[in-house]
Amino acid sequence: MDPVEPGHTDVELAESLLAEWDNGKGTSRSELERRVWGDGGAHGRRFDRFVRQTLGVATSQPSKQSGRITDLERQLRQLGVAPHGTVLSDWEMQLQHGRQALLAALRCWNDPVATFRTETFALPFVTAWNSLALAALQKDRAEWRELGAAGEPVTVKGVPRAAATTVLLERAFGESRHLGLRRNVNFWVGLRNHVAHRHLPALDLVTIPQAQAGLELTRSDAHPILEEDFRGRSAQWVAHRSTPTSSVVRRWS
Length: 253
Prior knowledge:
9 helices; two-stranded antiparallel ribbon
C-alpha cells in the first residue's frame, strides 16, 4: 500500500504555523498548540511532530546536554571503552578485540627479558589485523565468511566460520598501498603456524626487522584505515617503534 500523503489542509496549516513561528522569532510553539489544538501541555512537542511529519522540516534542536553526552561517548569509544549500557555491534566488538590484541603484542615485544617473545608476539599481532579486517568488512556489510564450493557459508556448530586471515586482509585492504602490510602480516601468519608445531631456535634476532616493519606498518596503515573506514568511532590504537630493549610508545589522535 502506498503511503498516505498529508492532505492539502494539513500542508497549508503546517506551512502557516511554520511561518508564524518564524524560527522562534514569532509566536511560540506552545501558544500555537493552545490556539490550534487546545493543547497546553505539549510544550512544543506536538508542533514539532506535526510540522516534521507533514513538511519534513525539523523545528527542534538537540539540547546542549545531549550534544555533550554524545561527545563524551565518542571520546570513550576512541579510548576503546564502551559506555555502560551500550550495545556494541559486531564490527565494534571486533575493533575492540583487535585493539586489545595489539596492546598485548606491544607489551610482549617491549619486554627485554621475555622468553619465547617472537612466538608470543606472532599470535596477538596476527589476531589484531584479523580483527581489524573483520571489523572493516562487517561494517561495510561485505563478505567475511568462509564460503563452500557452492558459495554457501561454512559453519562450525551452526556458527559461520570466518575466512582465513590472508583472505580477510585481501578483501578488506586489497589496495596496492597496503601491499607491504599484507605481506608482513602473511609472514607472521606463517610463523605463527610453524611455532605451534616445532621449535625454531634464535627467532628473536632473526625476526627483529619483521617485527619492526610490522609495527611501523601498523602505525602508518592502520591510522588512515581507522580515519577513513570508521570515522572516528573506532577504538584508539597504539603504535611504536621498537628495539629489543626499548620502545617509544605514542597514541594516535
